[in-house]
Design brief:
Structural class: mainly alpha
Shape: globular
Radius of gyration: 12 Å
Helix content: 25-40%
Strand content: under 5%
Length: 84
Amino acid sequence: MIENCKRCLLLESGKSKSFESVKEYISTISPELKVSSEIYQNRLEECRKCDNLISGMCLKCGCYAEVRAVFKDKKCPDYDNRKW
């Protein structure tokens, strides 16, 4: 049985094929819709610390953290304890 990687982003969890798909999707998003690289990295760092991150997926919303964190109009889905 493969265990889920707690507090890992998608690439770190060993799911490289899924990560490549996510990376490709992110590359198609208009730059006007994306946060800066610095903000993106800060958001991902907060996600890495979160107990709700399992194998790159946020258990609060079901999104891949790498995707949700890139959008300007998205916020951390943990309404009781927003990280970003």
